[in-house]
């Protein structure tokens, strides 16, 4: 193809394919979301309603069901597509850098079915990682079909991943910014690839809104906060910067400990234990299970006591580490947002014991905390700001959100924190290099 064709008709074909990729991802993402919600509610209802189980029999049955779903999800990943483990975002970043391969014909079904099982079981995982990975897999399939060059393929991978994030949270602007800020080292930036990302995100968002509605997914009403309260949001940002560094380091530590256990014994022992625990918690303490986006909204509106919120923070932190360390398909965006919301509510409740706070201040702290912890863990403060505003519709607290996010990111960097996806990609590459070295002939 000549240069003129690349600049003219080539661009047109590229944009059309990007929009089609976004459309397909919007359908798949909406189906994935509906499937997780439906199956996650169906199996507990079946045990309690249809089978009419009660007491120990109910808890035992729930534990077994959740454990089976977890183990089947892990088996699919380990048997067919090990790269479908976890979030999938590090895999896409690695593929855009030429370090990983997107085997879309395996990742697509494994990520969809495996993610459906793991998230529906009650594990504290998010659907945004799987949808981003699914979106990039659809883009890779389209690129292979069109026989495009490596640079065009990488640009389309970014477009598919952005479409996946747009479908997960109905947040197209945050999806575009995620590519620009999070994958800034890997994204082959040009007007051609940038437009493709925007078109894919818009197409995905339009389809998602058509299928699921256009109301912000975590709609929260809040009024403008007085300027005198801004230092409190800075303090919250500093706190979340510390928490973000602790979150990332604990997550990697947990992954390493569970992998060592798997190498010594079996990779299925720990996931089975976690699945059994989750099954019981789904019935006894649902606040400690699932992604937590809707939980974040409920907690913000209910006004629970400080002690209860502190317990929820601790439980969700522990269960997030345990759930992600199982190795099943599932992301960490949603757990981070739910954990941050609870921390923000704790912070506001504690502050209210010593200072008079304006009305809806608790809600404002909860909202801004989402952006702060996202900025500290993911390392993308601008994405955190925009994502939170698109998710909640709380544009009245734009300045507090910006302050919290940027100070959380600054604190994280000051403490030596690094973006979690960057760390996870390096860990994956190191493990694979170690495996190749151990099998190399001496």
UniProtKB/TrEMBL annotation:
The keyword Chloroplast does not apply. InterPro entries: Cl-channel_core, ClC. It is a multi-pass membrane protein. Its main location: membrane. It is found in: Membrane. SUPFAM superfamilies: Clc chloride channel. It comes from the Bacteria. Keywords: Chloride, Ion transport, Membrane, Transmembrane, Transmembrane helix, Transport. One of its GO terms (cellular component) is plasma membrane. This is H(+)/Cl(-) exchange transporter ClcA. It comes from Starkeya nomas.
């Amino acid at each position: 193809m000549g240069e003129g064709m690349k600049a003219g008709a080539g661009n047109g074909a590229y944009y059309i394919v990007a929009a089609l990729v976004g459309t397909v991802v919007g359908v798949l993402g909406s189906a994935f979301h509906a499937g997780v919600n439906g199956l996650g509610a169906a199996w507990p209802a079946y045990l309690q309603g249809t089978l009419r189980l009660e007491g120990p029999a109910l808890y035992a049955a729930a534990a077994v069901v959740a454990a089976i779903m977890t183990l089947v999800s892990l088996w699919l990943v380990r048997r067919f597509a090990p790269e479908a483990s976890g979030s999938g975002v590090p895999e896409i970043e690695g593929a855009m850098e030429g370090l990983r391969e997107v085997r879309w014909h395996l990742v697509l079904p494994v990520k969809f079915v495996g993610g459906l099982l793991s998230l529906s079981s009650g594990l504290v995982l998010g659907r945004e990682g799987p949808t981003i990975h699914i979106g990039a897999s659809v883009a890779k399939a389209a690129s292979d079909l069109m026989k495009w060059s490596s640079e065009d393929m990488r640009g389309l991978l970014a477009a598919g991943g952005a479409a996946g994030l747009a479908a997960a949270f109905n947040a197209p602007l945050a999806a575009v910014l995620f590519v620009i800020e999070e994958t800034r080292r890997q994204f082959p930036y040009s007007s051609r690839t940038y437009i493709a990302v925007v078109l894919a995100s818009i197409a995905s968002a339009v389809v998602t809104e058509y299928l699921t509605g256009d109301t912000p997914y975590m709609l929260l009403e809040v009024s403008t906060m007085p300027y005198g309260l801004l230092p409190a949001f800075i303090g919250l940002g500093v706190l979340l910067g510390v928490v973000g560094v602790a979150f990332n380091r604990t997550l990697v530590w947990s992954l390493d400990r569970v992998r060592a256990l798997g190498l010594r014994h079996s990779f299925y022992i720990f996931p089975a234990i976690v699945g059994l625990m989750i099954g019981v918690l789904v019935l006894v303490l649902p606040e400690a299970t699932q992604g937590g986006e809707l939980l974040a909204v409920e907690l913000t509106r209910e006004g629970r006591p400080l002690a209860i919120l502190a317990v929820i923070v601790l439980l969700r932190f522990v269960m997030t580490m345990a759930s992600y360390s199982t190795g099943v398909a599932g992301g960490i965006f949603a757990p981070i947002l739910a954990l941050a919301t609870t921390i923000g509510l704790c912070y506001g409740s504690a502050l209210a014991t010593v200072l008079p706070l304006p009305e809806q201040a608790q809600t404002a702290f909860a909202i801004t905390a989402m952006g702060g912890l996202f900025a500290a863990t993911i390392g993308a403060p601008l994405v955190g700001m925009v994502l939170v505003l698109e998710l909640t519709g709380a544009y009245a607290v734009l300045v507090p959100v910006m302050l919290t996010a940027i100070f959380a990111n600054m604190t994280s960097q000051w403490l030596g924190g690094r973006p979690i996806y960057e760390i996870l990609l390096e860990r994956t590459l190191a493990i694979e290099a170690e495996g190749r070295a151990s099998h190399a002939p001496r």
